[in-house]
Design brief:
By secondary structure, the protein is mostly helical. The chain contains eight helices and three strands. The chain folds into three domains: 43 residues; 98 residues, Type II secretion system (T2SS), domain F (Receptor-associated Protein, Up-down Bundle); 49 residues, no CATH class. It is elongated.
């Protein structure tokens, strides 16, 4: 069980902050709702929380955090327009913030959330828009957004693992180059001198290696 910090509003509209134990952000949001509070933000103490990230493009991780935070507020009983307004205030990525505000304006103008998001395909993928449409139609938007968040969280985790796996061969390659350079610059010259002292005749491939070694020595020694 983790400790979460929260920001919420009471029935009088006053901001309340504090800490509470829970198994997940969703559980904490439910506890706060039972206390008569409207959730604004919930984040793990000492963790990265569920604030929307900083500058740059909208990534899979951004969508995961956006969906998770949106779900928490919807299930806490916060109206869609108000939730979008809060999300736009918390988002520090300018492009994402502007799009969320336009979505909010469209919803205020009478469009559904899915229709509003569909107008921004470069930000909201088709799958996300379709899931939101299903959630709105079935009256289970909060639960649907949680499923979307879980999907993007898994996608983000998979991408991280792929990047880590792709980086491993590069590390091996760099180490191999370093070891080869060390051998050519420091070890091969010693053997070359040893053979020269005894007057041994070396085969052509060995002479080529020694030649490369001599060239590298000029740069490193």
């Amino acid at each position: 069980m983790a400790i979460f910090s929260y920001v919420a509003r009471d029935q009088a509209g006053r901001t309340r902050t504090g800490r509470i134990k829970g198994k997940s952000a969703d559980e904490v949001a439910s506890k706060l709702k039972a206390m008569g509070l409207s959730v604004v933000r919930v984040e793990t103490v000492g963790g990265r929380g569920i604030r929307l990230p900083f500058f740059g493009g909208v990534s899979t991780k951004d969508l995961a955090i956006f969906s998770r935070q949106f779900a928490v507020m919807i299930e806490a009983g916060i109206p869609i327009v108000q939730a979008l307004d809060i999300l736009s205030e918390q988002t520090q990525k300018r492009r994402f913030r502007d799009v969320i505000r336009r979505v909010k304006e469209d919803v205020e103008g009478g469009k559904t959330l899915a229709e509003s998001m569909k107008s921004h395909p470069k930000i909201f993928p088709h799958m996300l828009v379709q899931m939101v449409a299903v959630g709105e139609t079935g009256g289970a938007l909060g639960n649907t957004l949680k499923e979307v968040a879980a999907y993007y969280e898994k996608m983000d985790s998979l991408k991280r693992k792929i990047k880590a796996a792709a980086a491993y061969p590069m590390v091996i390659f760099v180490v191999l180059i370093a070891v080869t350079t060390f051998l050519l610059v420091f070890i091969i010259p010693r053997f070359a001198q040893l053979y020269a002292d005894v007057g041994a005749k070396l085969p052509t491939p060995t002479m080529i290696v020694i030649g490369i070694s001599n060239i590298l020595k000029r740069f490193f020694i």
